[in-house]
């Protein structure tokens, strides 16, 4: 049970990190597009 919980926690952390990176890149692209236009 404890091991499973640890696994899910690490999995969620990894997903959150990936989502943050994706959001950051999307925001950067959006800003660049705004600056270009």
Give structural notes.
This protein is mostly helical and 37 residues long. Helices cover 95% and strands 0% of the residues. The longest helix has 35 residues, at 2-36. It starts with a helix and ends with a helix.
Attribute tags:
rod-shaped; 37 residues; 95% helix; mainly alpha; single chain
Q: How are the elements arranged and paired?
A:
Elements: H1 2-36
Quick synopsis:
The protein has 37 residues and is an all-alpha fold. The protein contains 1 helix and no strands.
Structural class by secondary-structure content: mainly alpha
SS field, number of helical segments: 1
Span from first to last CA? Answer: 53 Å
Assembly form of the protein: single chain
Question: How confident overall, as mean pLDDT?
Answer: 92
Task: Give unreliable regions as ranges.
Answer: none
